[in-house]
Amino acid sequence: MLTRLLALVIVAMVVPAGVAVAAAPQIHAHRGGTVVSGKAKYAEESLAAYRNAARNDFVLEVDAKLTKDGVPVAIHDATLDRTTNCTGEVRTFTLAELGGCRTDVLGSPGSPLPTKPAAKPARIITIQSLLSFARKSGSVVNLEVKNVPSDPDYDSTTAFANRVMDAVIASRIPRSQLIIQSFIPANLDVAVQRLPGVAVSLLSLQSLNEAFLQVAFDKDYDIISPEWPVSADYVRRAHQNGLDVIPFTLDSAADVRAARAAKVDELITDDPLAAARAMGLKPARAFDATVFIDGRRMIAVVHLLGPRGVSARQSCRGTLLMRVVLPGRRIQQVRRKLSRNCDARFGIKRTPPRLGPPQVSVLFEGNARTLPELDGPKAPLLKPPSFNP
Fold it and tell me: In this structure, is residue 8 part of a structural domain?
């Protein structure tokens, strides 16, 4: 199964021994997760949205369209009209020309959730820049090859998908941090060919959910991603065929709870924090990781302040993951349990300066009551700080 972190939650403190409880599905931040607890806060597919989603280790869901000069950029529509201050098709703009376009709305117009004008319009980002951020932060990216017959830029050849795969390969993101999704099997077939071993997900509109379930099985894909709702029987049959189920787009607490009851593996939502709360998960009030160089060691000093209404005994259960990333490749990582006081001090061998400046992330991997929390990626301090007693 693809669920990375919440499937490993500790339930012993809240569930009687011997009672089996399904882990909460991993949450995908649809188009970055534009809404936070019912309020429009971020522009679609903006770097600010993805950075915020990464803080709670939500999967970063993104769409890839191509510019006139063949650069994959993060935007859902074939045109710029709905979400930016520009008009016209994305494919008629070079990347340089797109630099003059800005997102002008927060939230996702067309969804049932709130929207509002953007006080600080954001740039359109490239797919490679998002993948570079994800490689440093350790985030998983669910990347849609947005090459569909209903859009005017549809390409019936493999060229569109290959351009997107070029950007993925250039980013050097590990395949373990990547899902490639599409409504069109031919796009996924390119991903399988170019990136052997990468997880691929077949998207399906509701009218095609049953037919595409069979297609995903026949083509030996990893995931079926149906339009919600689907039944528990549908999920059961998908699992029997070796497929994970990641439905979209679940924007109400009732739908999230129903999806969990149906035993979906993961789910896609515009409001990840609200979805988490619907499953009984809360964000920590604070999470801080100070990382510094101390001789030949790189040390992390960590403190977590658990969610309101959750005891320290419950919120302080879980593990920490420190990842050190250098230009071009990941060097090392180490895990350590959080103490009963919700803190920890641990480290790994310092990377040689000749290999370039490191970027370090420290992730609290979450538990049955508390969402994961990420601090970073950031450069370590060059000397130990002075801590107050």
Answer: no
